[in-house]
Amino acid sequence: MIPSEFEYFRAGSVKEALELLNEKGPDAKILAGGHSLIPAMKLRFNNPGALIDIGGISELNYIREENDVLAIGAATTHADLAASGLLNSSLPMLAETAATIGDIQVRNKGTIGGSLAHADPAADWPAALLAAEAEVIITSRSESRVVAIADFFQGLFTTDLGDAELITEIRVPLPPANTRSTYLKFEQPASRFAIVGCAAMVTRNNGSFGNVRVAFTGVSASPFRDHGIEQALEGQPADGAQLHEACKLAGNGVDVMGDHFASKEYRTHLAVVFAERALKVVTGQG
Fold first, then answer.
1. 136 Cβ partners below 8 Å, 6+ apart?
2. Count of structural domains within the chain
3. Which DSSP helix (H) or strand (E) runs through 286?
4. What is the pLDDT of residue 53?
5. Which residues contact 213 (CB under 8 A, 6 or more apart)?
6. Which of the chain's ends, N or C, has fewer CB atoms near its CB within 10 Å?
7. What is the mean pLDDT of the chain?
8. How many C-beta atoms lie closer than 10 Å to residue 218's C-beta?
């Protein structure tokens, strides 16, 4: 199909993009990589009156370390994140996550900010950033605000982002010593979206689990931290038996999705399996 008629604007700066958002109102949409928005427009699931292209704004494309925090510009591509020497040395889970996304074309054009704003329930970034306890910087014409990643996602394709606001940065605290992390997923083979994706981050304390963080994508309408697994493991010896039992709690209390890719029961099973796999990797058992 052909999209409905729309205006197109190519913003040269964050300030210009925000002015256009304010001028055009709720009918305007931000275009970054376009891998989610353009197909939706072609199917007329989304019919914006104006597109504001931020893909060329260099001030939104960076990866740097600032005061023990990894700062990532919202328009940084998945490919740049996967190849980043800083990420690969400081928090390789983020580079690993980027490398699993889509195919080379998607990684070269898609952006981390666009993925977060779209909030697809099968997207990869939410699980990794939840496990890393990231923050999202949201900017309007009048202010910038900091939103914890756990508060940013509010439901199916729904976030805390307002109509006249723009994601400008993602901030990830550098982990303490003796911390390992990973992101693993069971993917849909054509799209490589996660049918179930699990991110795990653990700080070892004298052979015991410390600061355990386990997060899922693909399991429910919104990504989530699995506090049941985390609480079951916190302070316990990092051995296989305890780990196996804790992972049986995966998805407890969550409204697990069922669709033509995987039933509710199968997704629950996959969540258990991938939680255990991820935790075994970060504890050196896998």
1. 116, 146, 147, 148, 149, 152, 167, 169, 170, 171
2. 3
3. none
4. 96
5. 130, 131, 132, 133, 199, 200, 201, 202, 225, 230
6. N
7. 94
8. 29
Q: Note the pTM of the prediction, 2 decimals.
A: 0.95
For residue 203, how many other CB atoms are within 10 A of its CB? 18
Q: State the residue for tokens 């990532």.
A: 72
Backbone φ and ψ for 93, nearest 5 degrees, come out as: -55, -35
246 to each of 86, 228, 229, 250, how far by Cα in Å? 33, 8, 5, 8
Report how far residue 221's alpha carbon sits from residue 156's, in angstroms, rounded to the nearest whole number: 5
Do residues 30 and 112 share a domain?
no
Q: Flag whether pLDDT at 1 surpasses 80.
A: no
Task: Kindly report, residue by residue over 45-98, the tens digit of the pLDDT.
Answer: 889 999 999 999 999 999 999 999 999 999 999 999 999 999 999 999 999 999
* Whether the Cβ atoms of residue 259 and residue 193 lie closer than 8 Å to each other: no
Task: Pull the structure tokens for residue 45.
Answer: 């699931």
Domain CATH for 133: 3.30.465.10
Whole-number pLDDT of residue 238: 80
> In angstroms, rounded to a whole number, what is the distance separating the alpha carbons of residues 171 and 251?
27
146 token code pair = 């900091």
pLDDT, tens digit, for every residue of 180-224?
Answer: 999 999 999 999 999 999 999 999 888 888 899 999 999 999 999
In whole angstroms, give the CA distance from residue 265 to residue 284.
29
Classified as helix, coil or strand, 204 is: strand
Q: Which two tokens stand for residue 275?
A: 């939680």
Domain-located, residue 148:
yes
**Are both 157 and 138 inside the same structural domain?**
yes
CATH code of the domain in which 17 resides: 3.30.43.10
Q: Which domain holds residue 89?
A: 58-173
Indicate whether 2 belongs to any domain.
no
CA pair distance 257, 27, nearest whole angstrom: 30
Among 11, 213, 40, 195, smallest CA distance to 117 is for 40
